[in-house]
Structure formats: C-alpha cells, structure tokens
Amino acid sequence: MHNFEFVKPSTIAEAVKALAREDAQALSGGQTLMPTMKQRLAAPAVLVSLTGIPEMRGVCRNGDALEIGAATTHAEVAREAAAAYPALAGLAGGIGDPAVRNLGTIGGSLANNDPAACYPAAVLGSGATVVTSKREIAADDFFQGLFSTALEEGEIIISVRFPIPERAGYAKFEQPASRFALTGAFVAKYASGVRVAITGAGQDGVFRWSDGERALSASYAADALSGLSVSPDGLMADLHGTPAYRANLVKVMTQRAVRAS
Amino acid sequence: MTKVTMTVNGKAVSGEVEGRTLLVQFLREGLGLTGTHVGCDTSQCGACVVHVDGKAVKSCTVFALDVEGASVRTIEGMANADGSLGTLQQAFQDHHGLQCGFCTPGMVMTSAALLAENPKPTEAEVRDYLEGNICRCTGYHNIVKAVLAASGQDVSAVAAE
Ligand SMILES: Cc1cc2nc3c(=O)[nH]c(=O)nc-3n(C[C@H](O)[C@H](O)[C@H](O)COP(=O)(O)OP(=O)(O)OC[C@H]3O[C@@H](n4cnc5c(N)ncnc54)[C@H](O)[C@@H]3O)c2cc1C
Ligand code: FES
Ligand code: FES
C-alpha cells in the first residue's frame, strides 16, 4: 500500500475542507477501501477518516422517518433500528460477519455501490433520501450503475433518511464465499404502493422490479407474483450463476421477502 | 511518522507509525505482540481479530491511527493473571479446538466477543458468529464445542465427528 497522510476531523465542515485537497479520499469503516488500497487500485494522498464525527453517527427516529448517520456501523443499525424498522435492522445484521459489521458503515456501502451489496436494495426499496454535504438526493437518482453514484468529487454522505414502511422484508440468497448477495430482494409496503429493489442480479447494479411492484401493490401476497416471469436480459452472468438463474432468483427472493415481512 | 497512543491489554502504549500502518502491524512489529496472526490480509479469514473498545474487529483492516486512544485487547490479554490459560483458552485445549493453531487467536477473540454479548449461545449462534473465522484444520466441530463448554453448557450431545 502506498503511504498517505491520515487525518481525522471531528466536524463535517473540517472533513469537507480536508477532502478538497488534492487526491484526498474519505475513509469510513475501511472494509472495502483498505483491501482496494492494498491492491493499489486506490492510492489517495490524503485519507480523511469520517468515524470521529459525532454528527455522522447514530440512528434517530423523526416521526415517520428513520435517519441514520453515514458513519453508523452495520452492527449499530442492526441493534438501534430493530424497533422502528426491523427489516432494515435484519439486513444490516446479515452483512458479512460480526467483525465486518463492527466497522463497515452504511455511508461507505452506499458510496461504494457494489452491485451485490445489501444496503443499496434497502435504500432504493424504501425510496429513502441520501443527505450529503451539498444536497439531498432521492434514492431513484442516487445509484448510477456499477460502483457509481450521483456523488460528486469531494461530496460526502452525511445521513440517510428512510420513510418507515407499513411492512417490509429483505431476503438474500447468499454467495457463501463472499457473503454478498448472489441475488437479494428488498420489499417495502407504503400507503402509496409497494416498492421492490433487487441487488446482486443487475448488470448495472441495484434496480427496481416494476412488474413485481405492480402485482404487489394490487395484492400484497407472495402468490401475487406466481404468474410473473422475469427476463434474463440485462442480468449478470458469472461463475456463480447465469442470467436465467438470477432471473428466477429475482422472483423467488421477492416472494421470500414478502413472506418475511 | 506520527505518534499513536492506545491501551493494549490494560497497558498504556505508544509508538511512531505511518498513515498506512495497520493495527496488526503496530501490534506485532511495534509492540512485539505476535500472538495476533495474519492469515489473508484481506479481511476474509479472521486470524487477526482483536477487540477495539470491546468490539471484535479484523486488525488487518484497521489503520493504527484510526484507533488512537482506544482500548485494545489481544490474545495475550486472555490468560489469567497468574499466566495460566483463561477459560476459553482452556476449553479450546480440553476439547481439541485447534490443530496447527494458526486460526486460534482469532477464534478465541471472536468467541470472547460472542460470550460477552450472549453468555449462553446455542450451537447455531456460535456457528453463525464464527462465520468470518476460517479454520483449515479442525472442521469446526471442536471449536464450537469448546465455545459452548466455555459458556458453561453441557457439550456431551454436540456433534463429535
Ligand atoms: C468479508 C466481508 C464480507 C462482506 N459482506 C457484505 C455483505 O454481505 N453485504 C454487503 O452489503 N456488504 C458486504 N461487505 C462490504 C461491507 O459492508 C463494507 O463495510 C462496505 O461496503 C463499505 O463500507 P465501509 O464503511 O467499510 O467503507 P470504506 O471501505 O471506508 O469506503 C468505501 C468507499 O466509500 C467511500 N466513502 C466512505 N464513506 C463515505 C461517505 N460518508 N461519503 C462519501 N463517500 C464515502 C470511500 O471513499 C470509499 O471509496 C463485506 C465486506 C467484507 C470485508
Ligand atoms: S488476516 Fe485479517 S482477516 Fe485474515
Ligand atoms: S487449527 Fe489450523 S487453521 Fe485452525
């Protein structure tokens, strides 16, 4: 790993200022960035740790919404969101293993936008809002393809605001070696309708399954999806599964998510 | 180089590190605490697990400077005050929970974090919590047995094969 200057600010303003320096990059839990730096796929000159900023940590309920600081770890979300949003807490508690959950954060996961990561499904499936150092970004506009998001240079995620659904569920078909989703489905039912987000399957990363949303909005039951079939077009092919295999998983995992909700 | 200060196994320590110095490097090379092992260096195997402020973390995937001021516990801090093996360590020995021993420091530290959170786990809970700790020797059964035994539960019925 190339060396760098390490800085650990205690306010958002200081972090934004440090990130304006040349070749500066944010560090949150480091569970993705550090392995990337060891492979020299990333070599920042300045690394700005976001874990010492109290305003960026914690889970807080405001009326019908749950706001989660970007530097809140998966383990903290699993614990602190359990009462207000159990499906989200369950998702966080199923990421990786205990040691990864003690460091990895929601902000790092979203900024990274791995096509097989869990949080993007919850954020898109809940129609959450990503609050950054510059603006508020709707989930539908945030995810922009493999490892790519609407974040601009130097812009950091401060928190994520989830509208609390009437019911929700997440079902992940786990790739046993990496523990990421081979395909995962997040389903959330709101007064305005049902949203379904699929991770691990799309060539462009997380996406909404609109046929599934329509069927579940008309009748919220796993059986409502029985007659649907998913096209393998645009789905990922790799060692672990063909597009047709993943297409089947989209439906099966959505049904399991509905049953779990 | 930057100065880093922390508490390791109850003792205040400090040293000069680079930005890129990993916590595990600081422990092994800076402090000579070579009980913590590096298996994969890519946060997959769990051999390097230590506790930072009571939480199990993979010390190959933490920068030393990011845990400035923290309280760290390593396998060297698991023995009793008189130097004899602690309860979990003794249980690993009694139940043959290790063969080559390379994964053992991480297994013991992760198991200690589990028992602190959940003093009487079920067999399934032990297996689930140890998901990020890989052992290439034992086949896991005896590790699970050791953890259950250390929690004071009867292990005579646990799979022995
Ligand atoms: C063994 C293992 C198993 C895993 N299993 C899963 C799994 O099952 N499901 C899953 O979803 N994930 C899994 N992960 C990934 C894990 O959840 C990571 O913690 C997460 O993807 C990255 O979060 P982080 O806080 O560690 O981010 P970091 O590694 O610190 O950063 C990741 C990227 O985001 C940027 N960044 C960080 N914070 C911000 C911010 N606030 N604003 C803007 N940019 C930011 C960084 O610059 C970097 O580019 C696993 C990881 C490991 C090592
Ligand atoms: S050496 Fe740290 S997880 Fe393998
Ligand atoms: S005892 Fe050899 S790797 Fe576990």
Write the layout of secondary structure elements.
The complex is a heterodimer of chains A (261) and B (161).
Chain A: E1 5-7, H1 12-19, E2 24-27, H2 33-38, E3 46-49, E4 59-62, E5 65-69, H3 74-80, H4 86-93, H5 98-103, H6 106-112, H7 119-125, E6 129-132, E7 136-138, H8 139-142, E8 157-163, E9 167-174, E10 181-190, E11 193-199, E12 207-208, H9 210-218, H10 243-260
Parallel strand pairs in A: 1-3, 2-3
Antiparallel strand pairs in A: 4-5, 5-8, 6-7, 6-8, 9-10, 10-11, 11-12
Chain B: E1 2-8, E2 11-17, H1 23-30, E3 49-52, E4 55-58, E5 71-73, H2 87-94, H3 104-117, H4 123-129, H5 141-150
Parallel strand pairs in B: 1-5
Antiparallel strand pairs in B: 1-2, 3-4, 3-5
Helix pairs in contact in B: 2-5
The structure holds flavin-adenine dinucleotide (FAD) and FE2/S2 (inorganic) cluster (FES) (2 copies).
Question: What can you tell me about this protein's structure?
Answer:
The complex is a heterodimer of chains A (261) and B (161). Helix content of chain A is 31%, strand content 23%. Chain A is an alpha+beta fold. Chain A folds into 3 domains: 5-49, Uridine Diphospho-n-acetylenolpyruvylglucosamine Reductase, domain 2, CATH 3.30.43.10; 54-163, Uridine Diphospho-n-acetylenolpyruvylglucosamine Reductase, domain 3; 167-260, Enolase-like, domain 1, CATH 3.30.390. A 5-stranded antiparallel β-sheet of chain A has the order 4-5-8-6-7. A 4-stranded antiparallel β-sheet of chain A has the order 9-10-11-12, sandwiched between helices. A 3-stranded parallel β-sheet of chain A has the order 1-3-2, covered by helices on one side. In chain A, strand 2, helix 2 and strand 3 (46-49) form a beta-alpha-beta unit. In chain A, helix 3 runs antiparallel to helix 4. Chain B has 161 residues and is of the alpha+beta class. Chain B is 29% helix and 16% strand. Chain B has helices spanning 23-30, 87-94, 104-117, 123-129, 141-150, and strands spanning 2-8, 11-17, 49-52, 55-58, 71-73. Chain B has a 5-stranded mixed β-sheet, with helices on both faces. In chain B, a hairpin with a 2-residue loop joins strand 1 (2-8) and strand 2. The model of chain B has no long low-confidence stretch (mean pLDDT 96). Classes of the chains: A alpha+beta (261), B alpha+beta (161). Chains A and B meet through helix 2 and helix 5 of A and strand 4 and helix 3 of B. Flavin-adenine dinucleotide is lined by residues 25-33, 50, 70, 95-96, 100, 104-105, 107-109, 111-112, 114, 117-119, 151, 156-157, 179-180 of chain A.
